[in-house]
Amino acid sequence: MQNKGLIKLFAILFGLVSLYQLSFTFFANKVESSAKEYAEKNVNGGSGRELAKLEKKYIDSVANKEVVNLGVAKYTYNDIRDKEMNLGLDLKGGINAILQVSVKDILIGLSNDSKNSVFNEALAKADEAQKDSQDDYIDLFYSQFEALSNGSVKLSDPSIFGTKALRDKIDFNKTNEQVKSTLQQEINTSINTAFEVLRSRIDKFGVVQPSIQRIGTSGRIQVELPGAKDIERVQKLLQSTAELQFWEVYTNADVIPYFVQANAKSIELLKDKTASATEQVKDTAKKGDDIDDLLGESKDSTSVEAQKMLFNFLSPNQSQVSSTVGYAKVQDTAKVNELLNNKEIVALLPSNLRNAKFLWDYKSITPAKSADAPEDEEVAAIIALYAIKSNRNDKAPIEGDVIADAKQDYDQLSKPVVSMTMNGIGTKKWAKMTSDNVGKFVAVVLDDYVYTAPSVNAVISGGSTQISGGQMTVSEAQDIATVLKAGKLPAPARIIQSEVVGPSLGKESINASIWSFALAILLVLGWMVLYYGKAGLYANIALLVNILFIFGVLASFNSVLTLPGIAGIILTIGMSVDANVIIFERIKEGLTGGKSLATAVDEGFSIKGALSAIIDANITTLLTGVILYAFGTGPIKGFALTLMIGIATSLFTAIFITRLLVDGAVTKGTNLTFNTNISKNWFKNINIEFLKKRKLAYVISGAIIAFGLVSILTIGLKQGVDFKGGRSYIVRFDKPVKANEVAATLKNAFGTAPEAKTYGSENQLKITTVYKIDEEGRQVDEQVQSELYKGLKPYLGDTTYENFKPGFEKAGSGIMSYMKVEPTIADDIKQAALWAVIGSLIVVFLYILLRFRKVAFSIGAVVAVFHDVLVVLGVFSILYKVMPFDMEIGQSFIAAILTVVGYSLNDTVVIFDRIREYANNSTSFTAGLVDKALSSTLGRTINTSLTTLLVMLAIFFFGGDSIKGFMFALIIGVIVGTYSSLFVATPIMFDVAKKREKK
């Protein structure tokens, strides 16, 4: 091998750079471990929120202190925390969310809230069409408008987009197609603005290495905040439009007479519903046999009868004159809204309240428990209601565009507030509003929630004011100031897909990953020494260098390490071993053929020896990785990235580092035999007639596939929420629970029983539901979570709702992780996954055709891949109901399938490479020639499959629960892929080649 000195220098420098980059992770982890120790020693009561506060306090105190001193350079914690290796959500906890900026709202805004019937009907139909389409919303709207208008009205009409605001861009002569192009530009501008606003908010949030990126032109923005613990706070920050308004308000004295009338009307409205509910209960009582059930239903009917008027849900504020007009329990706010928005009740509004708008306080209050209340009684949180003096256009007298600056501050009582400074126009408007309302009340409203509604004691002429809620925390005040300074979103952004992982689950995943990773490496290192002796030791050194290089590259480029990413690294270890196995087997063949050690080594590492097969096998897997990275999201991208990096470093270490070590041993005269006393006779003198057994193999494979297809068509496959939409919660309990009992209990909360399955240990369940998944709004997510808590209360002991919510470290029961996918994006994810599989098969077919120049090889390889995919799908369909771990078909499963494709091809290509070599040295292409090639590579095939299986089994048994289904698919894939390389791909290739010869 030439240029040994250069390769040594490169390897040493690369190793040093890798160690240097990884050292930042080591030192940052030391500081973070100290912060955790400090928090655990000083926390009161073990609250996750308190722990997080104390950790942050410690980190802030040492942030600018020197942590690393290299002599030539010194680093503080703030310097190194951005250089440490990024951990994904599944290892660190946090939130990954995809937000959809509402293109519909942008269009409505551009039309100046057009009342044109064709325009509004087109929007409604576009909403419906979007549920089952992957097209952009603007395209759906345009096609619906064209169909509905039929030329009767144009988009440039003054009643639609021919407005004063757009007159420079849209005139009446423009065609619909031209207007659509202009609208697309305006939408892109609005989405870019939303992206910048969100990025500004996130940058100020304070998490290390946040990620935000646009997804195509669909108006979707992906945000990942690893390490974020206060999930509720993050969701508010991301979805807040920052629409600040200043309104005059009605007092409770103004509104109570109306409430009395509304209450009387509500009795009449609810009377029929109550009666029908009572009748339904009576019918149930007649039919039921179980006395306990009857009593339960009777109790429910009483509850329904009690809820027969507005004042059952809303308590009017009858104390002194106040801006607060009433109070309600948080869970009753939806019912109050429903009644107050009822047409018959709205019609009762007197002329002085005609444009009244009822808004809730931004935060609920939990009253103190009375002294004589039972210990286990839960006190319901209540929230205040306000009546805003709105107008026909619902336009506030003063809006947020007048705010020049905003910051978190403290009032005279040292309570957190948001101090705001207005510009010149705002100062004048604010002075007039306060002048007109001296002795009255004004409200500061942010995103339709009232933050403060104080009494005006005097005119405020300086253009400054404050937002101050009685229960406002410092972090809430900071967030409000952040969203106000970052600016208003041009349209509402809602979370259509989110994944939340609590820090406790992340910590457990890290521990499980370390154990499985260490065990996998030990198994591989031990096997290589057992099988190849001293040569195996050299391969092990190259393998450890390879691991250093992979982590060094990940750290250098701030790549994210996920649980599937660790699986990718461990899979790469198997492939790295595979390259050495191919080389060593070639060298052994040379030695067996009577060649000298030096000659056999040269041939083994040459392009005519093992190098051709190694490159072909790794390129097919690399192509799979590229497709995964292009179509995947989140953890799947992490898996693909580590797989691609691992392939590159594996090739370098297997070909160059191992060669350096082997050449060094040869130069010193070391006797390398590439086997041990135990393995020296393994796989020798093998001559199996594989092709004679191909018909039997076809029958076996056909039967397995047919059985699997019958199962898929009858039983089906268990689709994950990322493919079908829904919400999925991993909930931990203090004691073991039965999944079917919990599902039955939750039926009352969700209307239908959710899917519940034991997840890992017996005190942990994965609960999946589609309850209210089609409804939009942040409050819907909160409501579903609240219903889940109520339904699970009998199993949660004394866990409070606050501790039950996802985020923060948990000592007991609670939501450990949570995933939500709306049906619209679920269809898109499924479509992308399908294209990923099809794309990978096409790319592989073309590569093998290009490399081997024969269609027979491509057909054999692709048929084997289809075979492997169908077998894995069949196994998942047959076993998903009985296996004690998740076997969902989702993005992770698609990643596993594509990895199986890559692995199967890896195996097949090595065999095909040997067949081609033998065919080039022979005058005829016979069954005997193919059998000889298969027999000669059998040692390598079994050896590689065995080492890869050892690695995967270590991850399967000792890795985290979330990766078990993924690893099970890979294990089945490796076994089936090894079989198909020998008994499907090669026989199919041979039969196709023979048929083409006859033609």
Describe the structure.
- The protein is an alpha+beta fold and 999 residues long.
- Helix content is 59%, strand content 13%.
- The protein is built from 31 helices and 23 strands.
- α1 (4-42) packs across α17, α18 (563-592) packs antiparallel against α30 and α29 packs parallel to α31 (964-998).
**Secondary structure tally: strands:** 23
The neighbouring-strand order within the major sheet is: 5-6-4-18-23-20-22-21
Class derived from helix and strand content: alpha+beta
Number of helices: 31
* DSSP strand content: 5-15%
Using only C-alpha atoms, the radius of gyration works out to: 34 Å
The main β sheet shows up as: 8 strands, antiparallel
Uncertain ranges = 274-305
- Give the termini separation: 46 Å
- Overall 3D geometry? elongated
- Residues in helices, as a percent range: 55-70%
Which key phrases capture this entry?
eight-stranded antiparallel β-sheet; alpha+beta; 999 residues
Provide a short characterization of the protein structure.
The chain is an alpha+beta fold and 999 residues long. Strand 8 (314-316) and strand 9 (324-329) form a beta hairpin. The longest helix is centred in the N-terminal third of the chain and has 39 residues, at 4-42.
